[in-house]
Amino acid sequence: MSTTTNNVIEISRMALHEQVAARLRTMLIEGRIKPGAKLNERELSELLQVSRTPLREAIKLLGAEGLVDLLPNRGAVAVKLTETDVVCAFEVIAGLEALSGELAAQRITDKELAELRALHYEMLACYTREDLSGYYRINAQIHDLINEAAKNPLLTKTFRSINARIQNLRFRTNQDGAKWKQAVKEHEQMIAALEARDSAAMRALMLEHLAHKRDTVLALMRQGQVAMK
Q1: How does residue 29 score in pLDDT terms, banded at 50, 70 and 90?
Q2: How many angstroms separate the CA atoms of 15 and 12, rounded?
Q3: Residues 74 and 95 in one domain
Q4: Pick from 216, 217, 192: which is nearest to 205 by CA?
C-alpha cells in the first residue's frame, strides 16, 4: 500500500472518530446520555451507525476531555458530579474566565471583535426562536473566542479541560426563562466591555456571569433536577 493511501486512510479514520466524538459530546451536554449512565457500545454503534473501533477512539477522547469517566471493568460512564465537585469546578472556571475576559479586553483584535459580534447576533436569533441547543452551541463558541482572544495558550488549555466537565450543567442553566434572559443581558454587557477595551469591567462581568451559572446549577441539584451521586 502506498504512503499516500496510508495517509488517506489515517485521515479518514481520524475524521470519523472526531465526528463520533462530536455527536457523543452533544448527547452528553444536552442530557440525552444521563450523568452516571454507562455508554453502551452496542447501542451507540447502532445509533450512530459506526463500528466499535471509531466509537472506542471517540470515547477515549471524551475521557481525556473529562466528559466521561473510564472505569476499570465497567467501561465508560457519563461524568456525574457531586455538589462539592460543582462548587470546586465553578471556583476554578470563574477565575479562568475572569482572567481570559480581562486579557481579551486588552488584546482582542478588531477582526476577533467583529467575529464575536456576529456570533452574538446569531445567538440572539437562537434565543428569539427558543432554540436552546443552537443557543448553547454558539454561546460556547463565544466563550471559546473570548478565551482565545486572551492569547494565552496555557490559559486556553486549562480552561477547556475544566469547562468540559461542567458543559452539561452549563447547558441546563438556561432552561429557566428568567435565567436565560439574564444570561443574554450579561452577554450584551460583555460585548460592550470588550468594545470599550475595559478590562476591569470585563473581569467583573465574567465573575458575575459564572456566579449566576453556579448558583443556578446548585439550585437545580438541590431540587433534584440534576442527577447527583
Answers
A1: confident
A2: 5
A3: no
A4: 192
